[in-house]
Amino acid sequence: MKVLVIGGGGREHALAWKLRQGARVTEVFVAPGNGGTALDDQLTNVPITDIVALREWAQKEGIALTVVGPEGPLAGGVVDEFRAHGMRIFGPSKAAAQLESSKAFSKAFMQRHHIPTAEFETFSDPALAHAYVDKKGAPIVVKADGLAAGKGVVVATTLAEAHEAIDFMLVDNTLGVTHNEGGARVVIEEFLQGEEASFIVMCDGKNVTALATSQDHKRLLDDDKGPNTGGMGAYSPAPVVTADVHARAMREIIIPTIKGMEKDGIAFTGFLYAGLMIDTQGRPKTLEFNCRLGDPETQPLMMRLKSDLFEVFWAATEPGSHGRLDTVELEWDRRVALGVVLAAHGYPLSPRKGDVITGLPKEEADAMVFHAGTAEADGKVTTSGGRVLCVTVLADNVKQAQARAYEVTRGIQFDGVQYRRDIGHRAARG
Ligand code: AMP
Ligand code: GLY
User: Fold this and answer.
1) What is the pTM of this model?
2) Which residue has the CA at smallest separation from atom 4 of ligand 1?
3) How many angstroms separate the CA atoms of 153 and 197, rounded?
């Protein structure tokens, strides 16, 4: 069976690496892929990003199964395009992907279906937005409505910051974010306190299976300081998601979401990722939905997954009114997996490209370097994006995982490399 993974980040490298271990898998293609997928002689990069061109190529190549990594192609309707031509693809339709691609859609959805989330209002008129912030006071959270690669959220600790964020997103629209009906819109919401976790499930249109728990580090610098990023590291399991929190998240958030989507006539298929804020009493609220796997959470998750991932996707995409996820089981390595992201000079605002990477180690059973923003030419690997690599390891506990991950990390060099020294600190505490 030939498999196609769409995307070119660390998440897609990890998915492709895991898929190529499938017993029935003969070839794995990655579109467009990166330096790491180029170097792996069991993976083949395909330099196509246009959705229709990709579907045409996949049909000609006889691709049996396609898996979509990033939100961009999902919001662009790649699943609808492949399905319309009778092809198996795992991911949500364009309509379902609005859970991520529109904050206003997802907040209204949560309100309608009584899914716990922060109190909020949506604005396109800056004057009304400013007035609302003055009424509510700080801290308060301002979010651009549309895909902004993790950069469209300002957690304002002062009113001045909140006003500035409104002007930045709504008046100047510096981010260039537009929502589905065009124009700029912001969601302003209540500031929630607690600890964050990534709660990710797979859904085949009816059956829901939770992945192992995970947590990422969103801020650039140690001690969770500095600007928000796409994620500077992650680990699995996440101790904050106790059995009780897990049960609540399923009962109060995930199941009502899947049922709510079905009721609204938009059955959800694919990965559903709820960003949770868990308060000191263990009550989860939804910060956001993503309609895909997390990056870098996927890298440690794939290290821990023992099941044949191809068979899981194959069951999930079985033709019919829904898939057969109920026939497969996800088996996880009991050990801890932890990933440290190595980012480029200037990340997140203006990552530099073209720095030569040296010291990349060979793949080992307990350590894998997943590539993200890298390019390869004649065996030479250079940086080509913000998040460059994710060093991911398996170990018996968090402390040992940290020691191993940083040992591997220190062996890799490129000019301007930035990484956090404290990945996993929350998990190591207990
Ligand atoms: P989002 O893209 O909505 O997940 O927001 C990005 C990050 O901003 C989250 O991971 C949180 O760290 C933070 N954040 C978002 N919404 C809130 C909120 N209502 N209260 C506190 N922090 C938030
Ligand atoms: N690591 C956060 C995300 O993938 O959205």
Assistant:
1) 0.93
2) 288
3) 17
